[in-house]
Amino acid sequence: MDLRLDGKVAIVTGGSRGIGAGIARAFVDSGAQVMITARKEPGLREAVAELGSGAAYFIANSGDPAAAEAAVDATMQSFGRIDILVNNAATNPYAGPLVEVDEARYDKTFQVNTRGPLFWTQQVWRQAMAEHGGVVINVVSCGAFYLDARLGVYGMTKAALVHHTRQLAFELGPTVRVNAIAPALVPTAMSGVSGARLDTWGERVVLKRAGTPEDIAAAAVYLASEQSSWMTGQTLVLDGGMTLGLAPDQSQSAADGVGEPGAAHRPGGPAEVNRVPGGSSAQGAIPPRRRRRPALAADGDGPARVGRGDGRA
Ligand SMILES: NC(=O)c1ccc[n+]([C@@H]2O[C@H](COP(=O)([O-])OP(=O)(O)OC[C@H]3O[C@@H](n4cnc5c(N)ncnc54)[C@H](OP(=O)(O)O)[C@@H]3O)[C@@H](O)[C@H]2O)c1
Q: Which of 112, 188, 198, 214, when mutated, tests ligand 1's pocket best, judged by the most ligand atoms within 8 Å of its CB?
């Protein structure tokens, strides 16, 4: 069975690198034209140059509803239609206990990861899909289903996005199908995991390796294609078997986890989470007072602009 997207037009948010770039590549290879978005122009320009003439970019912060409207409008102007939206861009400016989070980072995480996909979907619905149908794919995370001592806020945004996927599938069907993909660890800028720590995590999952953007992209092509035409409201978990259980970590102390979507995951109820045998606290244990907090992530938010790799607007 050959999965093809010939004649389709897709928007991939956060398409300049990592999983989003992998999805954009696979869409172009399957015959689609693609508009990628992100905040920083150099990465977008480079990605579009690599994707070739079937791609264009638009600078837009995914958490900004006005940028969503402008990006969808620019895609209609450039390509004349929109068949597929991939809500892939996300942020994770805070790694720490939920109970310690400050308002700014809590709000920013929800703004980009949860509000963003809603307002982008609203725009493609209004400007294109209500009339001729389409497909929306939300990139969530295994963090939506499992607990991690440092990723509570991020996990909440992704869990909300799973519900959002089901709700919008219910509301927009049969015209628009809405599904989600929940990856476990894929080495990217966001996961920030490489080298020995990556090997360690890979050894602990059933399929003995971390994911790749291509793994996620293959699922996205399936969800975007006619071959999944009887599927909506679902979340595909791509995790190398992580959610079946992780083998014990032999190589490092319990206090050294891998981060997104991390070794601290433990199947079971909250009482089992992040406790090492003997009752001592494990990775991400909540300190009584945190004097220093991780700084806000460097933010490339800027004015919305459109461009093509070949210099055309
Ligand atoms: N990597 C993993 O292990 C993993 C696991 C589970 C789920 N995920 C999910 O997979 C998706 C992609 O993550 P990734 O690992 O590929 O991340 P990544 O390599 O860091 O790429 C993130 C992309 O999103 C863009 N972006 C970030 N913040 C944005 C914002 N506010 N507005 C618009 N664009 C923004 C980035 O470009 P700019 O910086 O230029 O804006 C970049 O293109 C996310 O939804 C993430 O939650 C990742």
A: 188
